[in-house]
Each structure stands twice: as C-alpha cells, then as structure tokens.
Specification:
Its EC number is 3.5.1.23. Belongs to the neutral ceramidase family. It catalyses: an N-acylsphing-4-enine + H2O = sphing-4-enine + a fatty acid. Residues 539-706 form the Neutral/alkaline non-lysosomal ceramidase C-terminal domain. This is Neutral ceramidase. The protein has 14 helices and 39 strands. It has 708 residues and is α+β, with helices and mostly antiparallel strands. Strand 1 (29-34) and strand 2 (42-44) form a beta hairpin. Helix 1 runs parallel beside helix 4 (145-163) and helix 2 crosses helix 4. The longest helix has 22 residues, at 321-342.
Amino acid sequence: MSRKSCCHTFTALEGVLMVLFVLMTGVTVGFVIVMAISRSSDTTGTVNDSMGYASPDQTAGGIHTRLYSRAFIVANNTERVVFVSADIGMVSQRLRLEVLKKLQTKYGDLYRQENVVLSGTHTHSGPGGYFQYTLFIITSKGYIKPSIDAIVNGIVTSIDIAHGNLKAGRIFLNKGEVENSNLNRSPHSYLNNPEEERRKYKSNTDKELVVLKMVDLDGNGLGMLSWFAVHPVSMNNTNRMVSSDNMGYASYLFEQEKNAGFLPGQGPFVAAFSSSNLGDVSPNIKGPHCINTGESCDNINSSCPIGGSNMCMAMGPGADMFESTKIIGETIFNKAKELYRTAQQEVTGPLNGAHQWVNMTNVTVKLNATHTGKTCKPALGHSFAAGTIDGVGGLNFTQGSVEGDPFWDGIRDALLGSPSNETQDCHHPKPILFSTGEMNVPLPWHPAIVDVQIITIGSLAIVAIPGEFTTMAGRRMREAVKNELESRGSLGQMEVVIAGLCNIYTHYITTYEEYQIQRYEAASNIYGPHSLSAYIQLFSGLARAIAENKVADLPKGPEPPFFNNSQLISLLPFIPEDKTPLNTSFGDVLIQTLQSYKRGDVVEVTFVSGNPRNSADMAEKTFLTVEKYENMTNSWNVVHTDASWETRFHWVKGTAGLSNVTVEWHVPSSAPPGTYRIQHFGYYKERQNFNVIIKPYEGSSGSFEIYN
C-alpha cells in the first residue's frame, strides 16, 4: 500500500498474487490540516488474495488502478484527530492494532485509539489476508503477513507525511445530492421500515455527498475529504485486477485535475471519497435482471424463473464494468468538484475524540420504558450464502430465507456442530447457517470485542461505524448522535456523517424491521436483531461524553485479542523459482506491438516475466511505463504508469515457473501524436547453490507511432 495504499470471484491464478499488489501501491499520501486558533490547514501528497465478494477463488492477476492510503490530520494547539481513507475492502481489527502499535512507537501518545479513525473505501478488488479471525482467514488464503505489512506501512507512511507537513489553514463544508449513482439493492427490506419514517425521506438511498474543502490561509486548495453511500462494486466479480473501483476513480479524477502535470499518485493535492452507510446501496443502477432472459428479478428473493438466484444480477450504467466504473466515478467527482468550488460554510470549533471497546455479544439494549433486548453471539444466516444482486453466492441459497435447509443444516451439524438453542432464539427469525460465535477452532471465527468511536472537527461529527450500515440504519444513527450532541453542552448545531468500514469489520447492520425480512444484509447482521439499537445506544453515549466534556470518564472497555503470528494460518502457496522459455530472458518481448495506432486503439505487448509476488519493493515504483519520445531533448518521457486509468497490467501464470505479463495501453483521445514505447519492470527469483536470490529485470517494446 502507498501514497494512496492498497472484495467474489477471481480465477485462482496464483495463491495470492495480491500480496504483491498490496505491496505495490504508489506514493503514500499524507494530508494535513492544522486547525489552530486562527484555523489553519495543509496537505502533502504523499498485489495477494482479493477481499470483498467472500470467495476463496477471488485472486488477482493484474492491476487496473493502484490502491492508496489518504491521511488527514486536523490539529489545534492542544488536540488533533486523524482520519485515514484507505483503498481496501474494510479495516480489520488486526490492521488497526498493528497501525496503532507503530504509531505508538513513533509518536508516543500523540496518535492513539480515541483520535485515529481508519476507514476502508470498500473496494471489492483489493487485498485480503489481513484478518485474524477464522472466517476471513478461510476466504482469503489465510493470514498473509506480507499483505498486512504492506497495508500497515502504507497507512503509517501516509500519516507520517501528513504529520510532517502540518500547515495553517481553513476548512469549509458543503453538501449536495448526487443523482443517477446508486440504488437500493434490498428495497423489500427497506419497505418494512415504518411508513411514517420512510415518509421523512424522498429516496430509499442516501444521495447526499458531504465535502470538506481544505485550503491554506491564502485560499489555495490543499485537499478534499468526502463521504458518499455507494458500494464500490462497479468492477464486478469477474474482475481479475486490483482496482480502487468507482470511488477510487473519483479520487483519481479530482487529484489529476488539481495536480496538473503530475503522474497519478503524485502531487500535493489529496482527494478522498470515503464510504458511508452503503450496506444496501448498489452502483449498478440498471437494477437486477435475469442474465439468461433479460427480465426483471426485483423480487424479495432476487430469483429468476429459470436458474433461480444465480441468474439474478444487477448491472450498469455502462456497457461493461470498466465503463460503469467510469460513469459512476465521474458522476460523483463532478458533484464533488461543484461542492468544493462553492463551499462557504466554515468549520470551526474544538477537536474531540472518544473511543471504547465493547463486547458486542452481550449488550443489553433499552428498547422503551418497559422493555429491553440484547445482542447475540455472532451468527450468519442462510441468506448470507446467497450473496447479493452485485455478486451472487453460487449455490442454491436465496435471499429472504426465514427457514433453514435440511440438506445444508445437516452438513453443518456434521462438520461444525449445530447452533445452541440460546443462539437460535436470540437471532430469530434468522435461520442460522454458521453459528460463528460458538466456533473457536483454530481461532474465533468472528470478533466479540468491537470498536465504537466518534471524532469531532468543530461542528462536524464523524461516526466511525465498524461495518456496513444500511440506509435507514445510518439515518437513525445520524439523528441519534446529532440529538445528543446538540441537546447537551454548548457545541451548537452539528453536521453528522457516517464513516463506514472503520476500525474493525462486523459485516452488516440493519434496522430491526429490515432484519425480519432476512435478505443478505440481515442474514449478515451478526449480532442479532437488536444490533442497531445497541450501536445507537453506544454511540449516543460517546456523543454525550463529548458534548458534556466527560470523555475522560468513559470506561476503556475490554481489550480485543492480539493473536501471535504463530497462531495465524497462511494458506498461500510457496512461490517456486521463476523460469523463462528456451532461448529467452526475463523482460524479453513475446508478442510485439504494431508499428502504429490511432487514438482510441488498444496497444498491447507481452513480456517474459517473473512472478509479481517476488517484486516486494514496488510500493513507490511501477510495473510499467508508457513513454513518449521527445525530439527536443532526445529522451523518453513517462506519460503513464500502472497507476494510470489508461493502462492495464495482466499477469498470466504458466507451468513450471513460467509466466508472462501483458501490458495494455488504451490510447486516450488526448494523446499527442508521436513516437511511443512501453516498458515493463519486475523481479524474478532464482536459486544459486543453496541460496534464493531475487533479481530485477526490465523489458521494452519496440517504438510505435500514435496518429491523429
């Protein structure tokens, strides 16, 4: 992971090619704002198994776009808060603990549990292998230390750069609605919420984009931090490449515009598009259709007459996933640019941070004056295995299942044991497929101890949600936190944003009413039907402590486990020595480019390559360059890297250590005519006597012409 750092079906090309690809994200981005008494600000700019669609077969075989960590620090004379938006599926508990441990070593108590928020954008085409609980280990080829080390280093480096570049400045807030960018993928669940509550809102998704504009004291732009509710699943479950998806493309466009003349991942301006309450929100705005017949499958089970739920998929708005990613990303970017330009509401006031650890398996919830409820030990329902219209599960499970299946329940009982009566009663009406809270071999399958956290920047409160809130769940949380902050103390009117996928991953959180329908999101609500009420109660407590200036009185809560590396299982296959075809060397061209192309064409070249997992030092380098020959200087000038939208990097594993790389350049309409070439860089492994040696190599295509 790097300047900006690095989730259901990828072909298993090589164990976890993404381990490498996490390591290979570009320059770590640090963004900083110092909010002094005069209000100030600054910014500096700073691949293994994929994670998101929950499939062990989801391994990556290339690079679509690089993944980044973007760090924002806001400070005054006495306090500071940190918000990191990372291009990963979600933040794991292990990841957060590792980051905080490194920050403690470097900075002491300056950056700590209560004032550092780590948020994942929720790209489903990012790395796996950075979890310590068994369920996630199973779906991502185990615990992959090179993967988590790369992400930790990327996040910490982004914070380091931000820390070193604090500068006086000002912050402005703006918000507006983004149309044609999201739809509710579980509308039948949403409709189960009370009618009077639904009447308060004009849509079954949140369309509001919240933008923070950061400028220096002269008004020069430094950075932009935003939140919007949409799943980054425009790149669907057939994708084989690392990708930051639609939200990452929005960041790419914003930073490229602000950092004119810089290559992607470089330049001083940092723009983050962070996740929000996206649990039931899809970017595939054409809606669900049967891929075999074309008819709509927008029903409670997301099922087709022929083929069942496996045929029901949502797509769009583009003709393919690349065009869809581009359209959604551009739409969000264009609105963000408008809001950034017109932002006038200045954010002023104190900085605060409140954090607690909570045992979410046994929280007593006050439902009303006479009734209480409680949370449950974690469990996943049958509809969890059905997947969603953005990525189906692949077996004969359907969404909306409120009864178990004797076949699958029998297999579960034989292999894993049956859920206890207590857990079944607690999760009712969920038919339990996996009683993960009662499964502890080889390690616990799900977390019990969960982070809850709020940071405030003046009149803005950021609620760090440990999972995926649905639309209505997020609305209820915002309202509850806002009421607590405004009704107590002297903070005045507050703007509350939901930051999703923060600090630890606990799957989905639905409303109680949505839980009764038991679609995918409800079946994945692991702590039971009162989970949302419990979180509202807990976050309201944090808000109350902030408003009343009693954060110091909050109990720390029970610390989560930190398992030894020796306890964590890696299922990543060994990387053999790299080999080349007869009479070739690493970097040699196997398939050459043509002699000329026009704008809109795709240039392709294939090289003899090593396994990219051997290229562990590519974080601030690139696997490829597109270069233009400059006659004035008689030199080659880099115009694109593997971080560019226009390039794609495909690695294909052969047999007996053989592999090759194909580089694509999708020539943009803006490409100047002239002479170009493509270069590829990598490393290969060889054995000399009893020692394993990693060596660099490079290769170059022949020159070719681009015409008008």
